[in-house]
Amino acid sequence: MNVWIAVIATGLGCYALKLGGLVTPQRVLEDPRVLRFTELVPVALLTALIAVQALADGRTLEFDAARMAGLGAAVAALLLKLPFLVVLIVAAGTAAGLRLLGL
Q1: What are the angstrom distances between the C-alpha of 71 and each of 20, 50, 53, 60, 90?
Q2: Which residue in 22, 49, 65, 89 has a CA-CA distance of 20 to 30 Å to 58?
């Protein structure tokens, strides 16, 4: 039962967050500090997510050559301005290929 309480609370929290974005006055959204914040926060969150996925294994930091090679391949694909789906396929293919080779 505790799990359902957490699921419902999370759902309500997400709804409240969406509602907060809809009812925020336009003058607040046009503030230069808010604009700067909304430009930088997604980048910071995505960077943190990438770092955790690339360098962590559970609660420990772990350098995995296959993951790092996949990340490098993804960066190269992004620099070539390839579509996002292609970037994902290149990164996953690189990591999977290296794991298949036992590296």
Answers
A1: 35, 9, 10, 19, 9
A2: 89
Residue 85 buriedness (CB in 10 A; 0-12 / 13-18 / 19+): exposed
Q: For 30-66, how does the pLDDT look when each residue is reduced to its tens digit (9 = 90+)? A: 899 989 998 999 999 988 988 888 888 878 888 888 9
57 in helix, strand or coil? strand
Mean per-residue pLDDT for 8-23?
93
Rounded to whole angstroms, what are the CA distances from 16 to 2, 30, 32, 80? 21, 21, 24, 39
pTM of the model: 0.61
